[in-house]
Write a structure and sequence with these properties.
This protein has 10 helices and 13 strands. By secondary structure, it is of the alpha/beta class. The strands form 2 sheets. Strands 1, 2, 5, 6, 7, 8, 9, 10, 11, 12 and 13 form an 11-stranded mixed beta sheet that branches. The protein has a two-stranded antiparallel sheet with strand order 3-4. Strand 3 and strand 4 form a beta hairpin. The termini are far apart.
Amino acid sequence: MSLSDPQTRDNRIDLIRPDSPELTPHGPHQIGVQTLRFTDLGRPDVLNSLQELQTHDRTLTVELWYPAVLPAGAHAGEAYHTVTVNGQTPAVLHGRATRNAAPEQGRYPLILISHGYPGNRYLMLHLAENLASKGYVVAAIDHTESTYSDLAHFASTLVNRPLDQLFVLQALADLDQSDHPLAGHIDTDHVGLFGYSMGGYGVLNVVGAGFSDAAVQAPEAPPHNLMYPRAHSNPEYHQSMDPRIKAAVAVTPWGYNFGLWAPEAFASIKVPLFLIGGDQDDIAGYDNGVKAIFHHATGAQRHLLTFLNGGHNIAAPIPAPVETWNSPADFKHYADPVWDTVRMNNITQHFLTAFYGLHLKGQAEMQEYLDSTEGLKGFSNSGKAGLKLETGHSAD
């Protein structure tokens, strides 16, 4: 595509290429979207605790997509107003949801989406709408002090990322029991996680990979041992696993290449795990990153999808907004130098449909799409180029 292409000019996030794999296209449901805010009272205030430990009330903005019923004549096609990676340039993204539409009858599994550092709740917008159209409630978190608009010291992200994911899960479970219009529609007993980069770091910790003592006690670590509650050596951490989480996806998860985990930590992950990486990832690593995590996570049924010659930005981000095309540095935040972004998005949508369908909805027929021995079912022969899918079975 080029800037002369109207689809590029319009920042469409719902593009499906004609050569996309079988499970990529949107599902049968119309999509509603709402913006919610939740406040966690008394969270440690990482940025203001250099001397004495302080607490504060941490507020998170959450975008929520869900299967919806549109009244006659309603306009479907949400314009999402946001900013680009520099935190200042306005951008308008175009999808297919309808703001504040009434929810469709039924209870739908919940998927939480967690962005990178920096990022925001719209960075995986294309995945959120696609999944909602297939019968999921999808919640994307703006991680305070980690977004394009309020980026702060990295220590806050190190501590807060897993805590934010768990807090939003509980906040939505509480909302489902309230008088909110979406109450009764969010199945928080069947939860999937999706995290990209630092979001993947949080996901791995939430599902059982406790941080190393070396990371907790490092001179540059957050103060007051604030990472210890989520450490592998802390017995209380292992007792805190949330049984509502049934499946987890981590794309180019950051941290193992910087010693945030010891190898044995990953064996404590028990939920089904889908890992995605590029073998040229120079930020989170590959051989010392996602591939090593795949080999060490022996307690889980797991998959590793590799984009050959792909870098850190594979699979997850939206196509670079047209507003970034005049800034190579800003454009680079979203793009991969080898892979077409829409192509990667479509591949991710295909595999998420299979993985979450199997583990959150019990759709046994989806297993075939995840079995590496099947040779990438749902892809044309030429469409398999550049992809490698590996499967590991739990040793437990």
